[in-house]
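Appendix C: a fully annotated inverse folding record. The material below is reproduced so that readers can follow the format used throughout the book. The structure is listed first as tokens, followed by the designed sequence.
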């Protein structure tokens, strides 16, 4: 076993790629969802399994897989986990200058605006509270509108979540009928020009009743195109980290990554390593 610490932002993917090139049979990523996303970029289309040890702010992937927070116990359980081949998402934005994969979700519009404006200093001190503070700063303001095209039909909203997981932010569920094992996204669109409308959406999310709520549309898709409706910047985030600016294309990349996960995840069975 070898330990390879990152040397700064954006370096984890290159480290993973280099060790796979040297014959590594397993890559264990220790960190938050952003670090795991970087590691993913260096592992897409390889056959080497990825395991995770959560150590970030929201730990969405760890929560999705129900890994728990006891790292010592998690390390003991890793030999029991099963390798599962999964699809990943791919985001292209900023006129093609940004091309990145993701494992969890892409957010376009409102939540990406919040991610973009989160203070790193406050985040390091307060964790998830930094996102709440950035979100509340929009209260009472008009929200930028974006256009989402799926299967030739266009819809206007202020927030589009394109997800491969149920968990959102570590504490909530928005896309409730999707799994890492699916080869489609669940796409949830939120309409509304005024931020006040999101008070109702938040209540529905907390109660698990978003589906069917007026102003909320839930769809399935393997490709989503998102563009600005108004002048000014509109943002995209992947796996909780700022990615770039609209317009953007989000698509499924089937069978792109092997992830070590508990055998009970998704109700399926797989061969252990």
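Designed amino acids, in order:
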């Amino acid at each position: 076993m070898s330990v390879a610490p990152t040397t700064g932002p954006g370096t984890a993917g290159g480290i993973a790629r280099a060790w796979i090139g040297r014959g590594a049979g397993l890559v264990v990523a220790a960190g938050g969802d952003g670090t795991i996303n970087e590691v993913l970029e260096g592992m897409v289309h390889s056959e080497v399994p990825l395991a995770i040890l959560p150590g970030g702010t929201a730990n969405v992937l760890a929560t999705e897989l129900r890994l728990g927070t006891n790292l010592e116990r998690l390390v003991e359980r890793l030999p029991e986990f099963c390798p599962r081949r999964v699809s990943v998402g791919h985001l292209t934005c900023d006129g093609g200058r940004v091309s990145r994969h993701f494992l969890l979700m892409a957010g376009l519009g409102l939540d990406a605006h919040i991610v973009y404006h989160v203070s790193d200093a406050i985040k390091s001190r307060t964790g998830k509270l930094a996102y709440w503070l950035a979100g509340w700063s929009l209260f009472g303001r008009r929200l930028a509108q974006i256009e989402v095209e799926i299967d030739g039909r266009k819809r206007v909203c202020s927030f589009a979540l394109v997800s491969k997981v149920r968990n959102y932010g570590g504490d909530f569920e928005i896309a409730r009928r999707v799994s890492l094992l699916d080869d489609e996204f669940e796409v949830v669109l939120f309409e509304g020009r005024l931020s006040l409308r999101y008070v109702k959406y938040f209540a529905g999310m907390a109660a698990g009743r978003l589906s069917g709520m007026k102003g909320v549309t839930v769809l399935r898709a393997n490709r989503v195109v998102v563009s600005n409706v108004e002048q000014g910047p509109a943002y995209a985030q992947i796996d909780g980290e700022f990615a770039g600016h609209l317009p953007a294309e989000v698509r499924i990349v089937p069978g792109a990554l092997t992830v070590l996960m508990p055998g009970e995840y998704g109700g399926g069975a797989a061969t252990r390593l």
